[in-house]
Each structure stands twice: as C-alpha cells, then as structure tokens.
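Hey, quick one: can you model this chain's 3D structure?
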Amino acid sequence: MLVLGIETSTCIGSVALINDKGLLAEYRINIGMVHSERLMIAIDRLLSDTGTGLEKLTSIAVSIGPGSFAGLRIGLATAKGIQAASGIPIAPVPTLDAMAQSLKFAGRQICAIIDARKKEVYAAIYESSNNSGIRRITDYMTDKPEKVLAHISSETIFIGDGAEPYRNLIIDRLGEQALFAPKGFSPSAVTVAELGADMIRNGVRHEEALIPLYLRNPEAETKYGEGIGWAANRA
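Sure thing. Here's the predicted structure for all 235 residues.
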C-alpha cells in the first residue's frame, strides 16, 4: 500500500507519503502562503523526491475537517483532481481523528481541539490505549470551550491550536488533570494517511462526492441567511 496524505485544515499544511512499513516522506510548511499556492508544488516535490509516479499510488487520504473552510475546499479539490487523473480511491479522514491519532499510544484520554474563532472551538474526546489506539467517545463538537470542558472529568491530554488560547480556563477547570501536548503538534498529513490506509484496508472508501465536515455554516452562508450578503445589497 502506498498512500498520499493531504492535510489543509489549518494554516500549517502538509503532505505525506506512507507505505506498509511506515513514513517515506513528509513536507510541512507554515510561511503565510495560501494552500492553493503551495499544495500541488508540495505534492510534486514529495513524489519527485521519493521517485513515485501517480500510477504507483494505491490511495489518497485527505483531511475533511473541521477547520479552515477555504483550506478544506482546496485539499478536497486537489484530492479529487488526482483521483480523476489516476482513478485511485480516496479515504476521507476527519481532522480531529487525525490529531488524536498522534497520541494513539498515550494511554490517557485525549481532547483534540481546534480554534474555531468567535470564542468557540471544534473538539472531540477520545480514549487511547497502548494496545488498540484511539476511540472517539463524543460527537464532533462546535461550542464554547466551557461546554466542551463539561464533558471532561478525568486526566486528559489537550492537543491542537484551540488549547493555547484557553489554557488558563482549562487549568482552572481541571487543575493537574489537564495535560498539554507540545505546541508544535498540529494536524498532520502523516496521521491522515495512517487513518486513511486503515479505512482502505477495512473496505471503507469514497465513491461519491466528498463533503467537508464543516460543523457550522461558512461565514458567507451565515451572512447570506441574515440578509447581509451581496444579494441583499443588490435588492
């Protein structure tokens, strides 16, 4: 199995290539460019440096969100374009699952948390085991951090950029039960590819239109529904 992983849900985009033995290569960058300017360049570089042609890929794993609406659309569109050119299957991987996968052997409860702006976060809570990896135990949530913390009453590792803005709140609520992954931990194309490979092995693959996991409406749709959008201004 040779899987291309694509992660564009945050400003730190990444692509990775894994096989049955593990990671072959990863390219990660955070230099203020939009994903549309760098994603295909990164994929071309990744495949070139590993001597891999599209015909050698067995599947694509792409992060579907939640996260940046524009970033998710770019990642999904790129995956669809590669699929159209190669015919290989796509595995859609929830971003929060991929984040928790980074701590799959931690043996503690995990809260994957992304800053959703507007004083809200995207989050989900997982159990991790030294033997069986991760298992999600809540729904995917978009809510105020206080509401997310109401689901937590035991020692928990917080991972993701949503933890740092609310670190004091988390510590106030949980005290020594609150643990924090290093700040450098962000959604990774490596863990996206790992989960995507598992999905493909288990016969779960994408055959219809890929749909981003937004969890809430994009800003433009919200404003349109409130009568603030372009159409309203035209009236």
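One thing worth noting: DSSP finds eight helices and eleven strands in the chain.
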